[in-house]
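Repro:
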Amino acid sequence: MNPSEIVDCLVEQVWNQHKLALLDSLVAADCVTHQTRSADGPLESAARGPTALREHIALWLHAFSDMHVTVDERLAQGARVVSWVTMRGTHTGPWQGIPPTGRGITIHGDDAPRGERTNRRRLVIVESLGLYQQLGLVAPTAQLLPLERHEMDAERTDADDI
């Protein structure tokens, strides 16, 4: 399988059809995932061979039992693939200590596996703030940033006069 076919298999068969046993043939035992975050310092990294990835995906599928993943766009070159994905589901089970809310979620993310047998290394970006807002754990962005655009422009103009 080429890297794009591996990503298709991960999305369609592993995530959408819940065939987690396929991970043994798709993911290298020494795979490492680098999860990006908005903070100084190195990327958080975790060993994510087939067993760890199976446990990780199972937690998501238990918490969002109707989870469906689509690939919105893909860029592939050699053994490198970057996929922009959308995940949709309903929060029906506990997730990271959060009891089920019954709320629907739509989150976007990027996944960039590298190497043969999909992944000796993966870079993953997930829209965490949007997820927490949709679950009702964090206020909507408009409430977090209450300044109207014209108020921000006025403040910037005042600062420029100093």
